[in-house]
Write a structure and sequence with these properties.
The chain is an all-alpha fold. It is 86% helix and 0% strand.
């Protein structure tokens, strides 16, 4: 139970030992908590970007990545990466803007609106990351099937044996298994981090609604 919950619990007690909070005092406490939550959403989104960028750099020198680089897929992946970075930068801007707006809000109604906007932004950010993962995975799969000579030889061998359908089915199943695992891990991470922060933000929203009644 946090400070606001403790004070609210004792707010209406007929005991002079407890502080008697005004509407504005409670509002300021909710504002401070909401601002802190949105600031952490912004910070964590930046840390997440740095983490994945670091993983990409670490994997860049692996044999599989070097072999993939030889497939000359820059014409596809360079624009895809640029688009991804632009959209991520836009989300970072939205998170920062939400933080600044909430920090400077001066009435409960506007604060409630900004909380709703923040929740919507986070959900769209999560959806974008998951969709981007799916798109990149299928582009990688397409490039591998179209340009990787080793895989092309395996396709030719499977066709000669009358098992080309089985070969493609196996690849598609593996791709879906990979995506299922990756999406599950990401969803768990997003629930653990952003989900809990949004839950606290939603709690503040409900408290504001009570103040407005």
């Amino acid at each position: 139970m946090d400070e606001l919950d403790l004070l609210k619990r004792d707010w209406n007690k007929d005991d002079d030992r407890y502080p008697k909070l005004t509407y504005n005092e409670i509002y300021k406490m909710i504002l401070k908590k909401s601002s802190s939550i949105v600031k952490w959403i912004f910070i964590i989104s930046l840390l997440e970007f740095v983490f994945w960028a670091g993983i990409s750099l670490l994997l860049k020198d692996t044999d599989s990545m070097q072999r993939f680089d030889e497939l000359e897929a820059d014409a596809i992946f360079t624009p895809l990466a640029v688009i991804g970075y632009i959209i991520l930068a836009f989300f970072f801007y939205l998170f920062f803007r939400n933080y600044k707006r909430i920090s400077s809000t001066d009435n409960a109604k506007v604060l409630m609106e900004n909380i709703l906007k923040t929740r919507k932004t986070v959900r769209r950010y999560v959806a974008f990351n998951l969709i981007y993962l799916v798109v990149v995975t299928f582009f990688v799969l397409y490039i591998e099937l179209d340009k990787d000579q080793l895989i092309k030889d395996q396709i030719a061998q499977a066709a000669a044996n009358g098992e080309v359908f089985k070969f493609y089915a196996g690849i598609i199943i593996l791709a879906f298994v990979f995506l299922a695992i990756a999406i599950s891990v990401l969803l768990f991470f997003y629930w653990l981090v952003y989900g809990l922060l949004l839950k606290r933000l939603n709690k503040n929203y409900k408290e504001l609604k009570k103040l407005e009644v």
